[in-house]
User: Fold this.
Amino acid sequence: MKYFSLSSVAIGLGLLASSALAQDCPDNLTTVEPGKLTMSINATLPPRQYIDVSGKLMGLHPDLGDEIAKRLCLEPVYTNVPFEVQIPGLASKRWDMINTGLYYKPDRAKIMQMVPYVVNALAIVVQDGNPHDITGYAQLAGQPVGTEISGFADALMREINEAQVAQGMESMDIQAFNTFGDAFAALGAGQVRAVFGSDATAAYLADQGPFDVGASGLNPGLPSSFGFDGVTGGDLAHAVADVLRDMVADGTYNEMMSAYGATQIQFWDDYTGDIAVYYTPE
Assistant:
C-alpha cells in the first residue's frame, strides 16, 4: 500500500511563497554568527530531511528552517552532522538551534529549551511485498531489526523488546546503524528483517517502491521539537515560537505540514492551544 506522493509535496510547497505575512524583525537576537541562523541537521531521513541526487538539502525540516530564518530576517545555515553530536554541539555554541526532528521528552527539556512543532507516529518498514507478513512487534521476536543509533526509535525499540522478553518471547537482534539510510540498505540486502522509524519516512520509502509498510501509526503522540541552549537560547527559542504562531495564523504552517503528510502539533495530546517553549531545569 502506498501512502505518500512526491507530487503532493511539490504542489503543497508551491503555495508557500505568497503565504508569509509581513512582520517586524526582532532586533535582540544573538546568534553564533551575526545575521545568520545556524541549524544542526542530520539529513538522512526522507522526506523530513535528506540530500537529493544533486546534493541539495531537502525536506520538511529545512523548509521550516528556511521559513523561520526568513521571518527572523536571518540567513539560514545548516550543519549536517550525526545525531549524537547535536546536543553537545548546541551546548558548545557550534549552532544556534537543533533542527533535526528532535523528540520532545521531559528529561530533555531539563537540559535545553524545546519548541514542539509536529506530532510523530512510528512504523515498521519491511521488504517489498512484506514476505514475512510482519504486522507488529510480535513478528519481530527473534529477528534482526534495524534502526538509527541513539535516536528515539532506537530507545523505544529496546524498551519494546525488553517488555516482550519479560513476557517470554525471544529477544530481537536490534542493530543500530549510523543513519537510517544505512539501516534501509541493510533491509534491502536482507541483513535485517525490518526497520523501525517514523511514519513519514515509511510512507516515503513505500511510495518509492523498494519497501513496504508492515505496520504504521505505532506509539503516536510524541512531538518533534526544535532545540535551543538552556542557558543562552531563551530569546531565540521564544522568537521561533512566535514565528510558528504567525505561521499557524496565516496558514503557512498547515500548508507545509499537509504537503509532507505530517501531523500538526494541534493533535498532540498535551497541546495547550498555543506554540510553547518547554524548559524545566532542575
About this structure: Residues 122-218 form a domain with the D-Maltodextrin-Binding Protein; domain 2 fold (CATH 3.40.190.10).
